[in-house]
Here is the input.
Amino acid sequence: MEKPLSKVQRELIIGSLLGDGHLRPHRGKVVFEFLQTARRKFYVEWKHSILKGVACPKIYHSKGNREYYKMVTRTHPELMELYRFFYREGRKIVPEKIKEMLTPFALAVWFMDDGSKSRGSVYFNTQGFTVDDQFRLIRALRKFHLIANINRDGMYYRLRLLKRHNSRFVELVGPYILEEFKKKLPTP
Here is the structure.
């Protein structure tokens, strides 16, 4: 019997699934994988260190047209459960239960993966999700007393937190943000 994922491991994976992480079927089971450019090798190593015990022993490195680093986990029953929540017909979605799943740490991981700051506002690059999924995320953020809107980005949409919620956002995620990502945080 597999050892259960720790609370931190599960939250890291949930935050990553809202961002750059993926679950992939593998031999009838599921693995988690995370890929970043060479300049973000430190971030892959950080996630790898948290997922120690579940992660494959080494981080994969490729230097072809583009240098990148990738970590992959071994299969785990909880990853299959998360796959059922986060995927429909092979496409990543925002699960119905995201409000219950989202924690300050998961929110911080999501921000480090796919967040940015522009004109003093926090943005989440949610363009890969449907508008309905993005509204589900907006409702989930309310549990933290954060109000977000959908912001048009070309032909897609992304989430933008209202500026008046910057202090609350920094208070929630600040303790978890890696030093290299602190410049992405808004000024409260």
